[in-house]
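Support case: FE2/S2 (inorganic) cluster complex. Customer-provided input:
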Amino acid sequence: MRRVLLMAGLLVAATGVARAADPGADTDRVERGRYLARAADCAACHTSEGGTPYAGGHPIETPFGTVYGTNITPDDDYGIGDYSADDFHRALTEGELPDGTQLYPAMPYTDYHGISRADSDALYAYFMSLDPVHQQSTQTDLAWPFSMRWTLNAWNWLFAPDDSDDSDDSDDSTADRGRYLVDTLGHCGACHTPRNAFGAVESDHRLEGAVIGGYEAPALTPDALAGRGWTASDLTRFLRDGRSPQGSMYSEMYPVFHHSTRYLREDDLSAMTRALLGDDPPEPTPLAAKSSTMDGQGAQLYLDNCAGCHGSDGRGVAQVASAMPGNTTLRLDSPRNLVKVIHEGIEARSFGTFERVQAMPGFADDMDADQIAALATWLRQRWGGHDDTVDTAAVEDIIGASSD
Amino acid sequence: MSERDRIPSTPLHVTINGRRQPVEDVPNELMMLDYLHEYRNLTGTRYGCGIGLCRACTVIVDHEDGTSEERRTCITGAHFFEGKSIRTVEGHAERDEDGEIASLSEVQQQFLEHFSFQCSYCAPGFVNAATVLVERLQREPVAREALEDTISDALEDHLCRCTGYVRYYRAVRDAVLATPGTIKEG
Ligand code: FES
Ligand code: FES
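Agent response - structure generated as follows:
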């Protein structure tokens, strides 16, 4: 009897040792998965505002209706608790659930298609390590014919890439790493690449800019970025801090900073910057001289409504209001984002640990389209390097589209 | 030519607390708060944060249709108010012939009775905001059950660093209840 007990003791000890060896490896993998989940910005859709991380519920507006991010915690009923690593990989990179259901392409599986199996497994390990949340996510509500999921098979046949990338390691060089972070994990193209009438990304116009939710997701090609005055160091800083001399992140870009880019390692941020601006970044275009003066309606609208925070010289106030000269929103060819920001304002935001920037009020109730046009024209001419005029009809078009 | 003459300026026409102000050239980039302090010697409107956050600097803009709204004077240029009529904290009490205060407005009286403020830095903004609210409720009464939420919605952007808001809140509630026509019957 004693012997038996002793044997049992040994067995326990042996298992104990085996277990002790695993957690180290597991912890590494889980940590890698946590980092990858941030790089892939999973929270942007799978976490609702103020909700439990990854328990789903964030609404994603698509041209065809609203899709809700699902619960990806390991809950057996409502989450991914019964997924195997293979199931997870298939959902992530092919958009297909274990029961054969096809996911809506709001899940960027066409971008995630290139996620390596090793990274998929790390992501799986991370999500499986979370506490399960027993919560059903809101059901998706799409317009016909997209409400019929079988139509998605046709969509996939037309638009989804074919081969899954089975390479184990995506980290062979900075350039590859950068593209992997930008195009695959970061799925920047999901917003910054235009889509066709079927909602599929037009891959031959990679990162050439698109309008999404009424705002412009600006072009991120090297020439477009340099044309708006971006340097590699400013771009890295923008991703890391959410702010740079060109302005701060707002609209749909803010959550990308909040959930994703602020967590990335410096070498990864540099790799992304290099993937965006190229190995030999074009010289940033200097800001053209001011072509508007301090006279007239636009100038007075600025002084009356904006200068209190942004300053009559446009220099802004640190931690309070962005500087205007060379601001990226003013330098964009289209006045869309400028008009939207004047009309709707910007919510209060925190940047980093110690910076909290108060809300910018919207002027929807104070300025009509004529006045917004005059103000936008003046701002673009003064600090955006433009010499054209924003006309009232263009403003009506932009704010009309935003107020439905 | 004095220094001030070289600053681009424009004549400003504004009515404050029911009186048309003398028309003067006012710098195009002057904020309204500075105009009130420096040109009109109305120093009751407070400069708190200067960035549109605390609302100590709030005044009332009266529209021709009888409605009114709050406006932050630290971030709004004086010329925004061209042709407009405003009320500042100095304009609420009734005054006698000598200009001395004869009686306070309902809102002011309630603030005093409830001991609503301590240092009073935020008080001018609260007086104006609560007055805008009471007047709005006279035009558009709410149900009694909706009053608490209505007060919170109307005043929640105003910051007070002393009092914890409870006494402000009670005072505004009592000011509303003491004003006829603000509550929908039934
Ligand atoms: S001083 Fe104007 S809002 Fe604070
Ligand atoms: S009473 Fe002191 S800030 Fe309100």
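Strands of chain A lie at 59-62, 65-68, 141-142, 210-212, 215-217, 243-244, 247-248, 349-351, 355-357.

Case will auto-close in a few days if no follow-up is received.
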